[in-house]
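Deliverable D4.2, example record:
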Amino acid sequence: MRSRAILPGATIGILGGGQLGRMTAMAARTLGYDVHALDPDPDCSARPVVDRLVPARFDDDEAAGELARHCDVVTLEIEQIAVPSLEAAARHAPLRPSAAIVSMVQDRARQKRWLTEHGFPLGAYTEVTDAASLEEAARRLGPLFVKAARGGYDGRSQVRVRGATEATDGWAALAGPGGGGRLAVAERALDLEAELSVMVARSPRGDVAVYAPALNHHERQVLSWSVIPAPLPPDVVARATALARAIADAAGLEGLLAVEMFLTREGALLVNELAPRPHNSFHETELACITSQFEQLVRAVCNLPLGDPSVVKPAAIVNLFGDLWRGDALPDFNAVLAEPGTRLHLYGKRVARPGRKMGHLSALGDTPEEALRRVRGAAARLAPRPSSS
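Output generated by the structure prediction step:
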């Protein structure tokens, strides 16, 4: 039996009230939906743009159920929602994506096992639980990136181990005092040609829309800039698109799924990680594409016809971190607002901290390379200036 469409005028619940929840809520309100959100921070980014905020922890299953009781469908903007909370929400409203998908993704070891079982390509890795197993992994696989199986994002809970002699210190840095009992995945460091991501939308009725791949650049293991469409060979684009769609189909996705990939210098395309939500590397879809990733999420979870993901004009983004806010000195927003073809998007966060994503710049260009040059040039003008009294 086909799922019914949840039409404008209904209420969408979002588990998480960060910037992704904020931008999803703004897209939902444009389409005529009411929006409720749950977040531990009562002053979260989404608070000013939602109709109701439930201030509660992500492991508060009673609060998640209370949110869902007032909603026609529930989605999420962050993976770190406790499974009992997801299940509590699903008892009162459709949860898209499902608790099974989120549970698989939020544990890196379980995610890699699932990808392996379904025959999707991965780089060499092994699971480790202590310094001794990490040392053995380094001897067998060579230089490693070691990531905690649970928790951590934007480079957190990750360490680089260049050889067996660094295993003890690397494990201590990852696992903390004592260091016992924590599961991690140790991934062989790869010789990369590029990092890219593909966004897939899939609705309960089975409709699928796939965005052009985004080319991504990370600094200190955090996304610095991204551009769409990725200036990559057509065969790589075709393979990446087919791979992402196959993963979404195998998972039975309802909602969005971002598939992060590595392209090695030998031409191999390998899955890095999955994210069942809007993704930082597709923020530029608000400028580049007929349908942004945020509107697409609303369409997908409400079982509406999916929007056209076609790129109208290339666009790129640069993330803006709290390092740009220095004491009472603000970034020079005037400089970028005067730049043609460039857009400033701030997330409404009141406290700036080094490494915290405060917003992003996006820019259009006739080519991906031009869009990237324009947005990086604009970002370079954001030297802080004293705030006016």
